[in-house]
Amino acid sequence: MRKLQLLTGGESHGPGLTALLTGLPAGLRVDLGLLAHDLARRQHGHGRGRRMQIEKDTAEIRAGVRGGETLGSPLVLWIANRDYANWEKVMGPEEIDPRLAELRRLKSPRPGHTDLAGGIKYDRRDLRDILERASARETTARVAAGAFARMLLREFGVDIKSGVRFLGPVGAGNPLPNWDDLLRMDETSPLRAIDRSLEPEMVRLVDQAKEEGDTLGGAVTVIAHNVPAGLGSHVQWDEKLDGRLAQAILSIHAMKGVEIGSGIVASQGFGSVAHDAIERTGQGRWTRPTNRAGGLEGGVTNGEDVVITAYKKPIATLRKGLPSVDLDTLEPHASQYERSDVTALPAAGVIAEAMVALVLADALLEKLGGDSMAEVRAHWEATMALQKAWPGRG
Question: How deeply is 373 buried, as exposed, middle or buried, from its count of CB atoms within 10 A (0-12, 13-18, 19+)?
C-alpha cells in the first residue's frame, strides 16, 4: 500500500502550479535551502529557452508544515508563474480575450507532442488546452515535492545525484557511471556532464542545433546511494520496485526509455558475466564486487546503489517545424512553434532525481511504517538490527 501520493495541478502559462503530497510523517525538519536549491538546479543548463530567464521559481508552503516541521497532514506547495502577467487575457480561469486567444491558438499539432492525441481525446480544437498541461513546466511542482522526499531519505543516510551521460551522439559509448563519478561532476557546468571532457563538444552541438532550429535528446543517469536492502517486493507485479521506478521515470516529459543498472549491455551477453557475485565481509556485511543489477533484484533493493539511466528524446517543439496538418483547413501545414528549449537534459536529471526520491521515500515508509519521525526512526533501528543479525546461526 502506497504511503506517499503526489498530485500536481496547473498550466504552463496559468497563474501557477500546485503540488499536494500526502503521507509524510509528522516531525520531519524542513530544509528550505534544499528546496530552493533543487528548484534552481531544474532551471539550469545550456540550451534552455527564454522562459528560464523570466521565471525564478520559489515554492510557497501553504499547508502541512508548522514551525519548520511537517505535521503529518497533506503538504501543499504553490509555485507562481511570473509569465502569467503576459498571458492572463489568454489563460485566465474566469475570463479571456477571444481575439488574443485566437492569436495564441495552436491548430497545427507538433509531431512527438501530446497536441493531436490530446485534442482527439478531450475534443479540443484549440490545442493550447492540451499543451498547457502537457508542458514540462509541470515538473517544477514535482521537483518541489521531491525535495521533501529527499529530506526524508537524508534522515536515513540516502543521497541521490544525477548527471548527463550523453547528449545526442556525444558520449553515447561511455560506460555506466558510478557514485564516485557523480561526486566528481560539476553541478554548475553548462550541461552537468558526468564526463567533463565532453562538455565543450556538447555545447558546440547545442549551439549548432539552435542555429538550425533543431533540438537534441540524450541520457541522464541517476544514482541513489546508501539505499538499504529490502525495499519493494517480489510478491506482486505492481509492488516490484524496479517497475515503480521505471514508471516514475517514463512519466517525465519526453522520456522514451529507462535502464536499470547495465541492463542493456547485460542483455547482449551471457549470464555468466551479467550478474553480481555475492560476498560477505568480516564485519557481517553483504556486498557485491560489481553492480550490474543496479541495486535491484526481483523488484527488491539489495543494498547496492540504485542506478537508473533515463533516455530522453529530442524536444518535440522545433523552430523550423515538422510536417503536420492545419485543423481548420485539414491541409498540410508545418507544425506551429511554441517557445521552447533546444535541450533540457541537465534539468531532466534533476527531475529524475525528484521522481526517484519520491518512489524510494514511499518504499521506505511502506517498509517501516509510522506516523511520526520518532516512530519511523525506531522502526528503522529495529529493521537495521534484524538485517545485521540475519541469517543468524540457525
Answer: buried
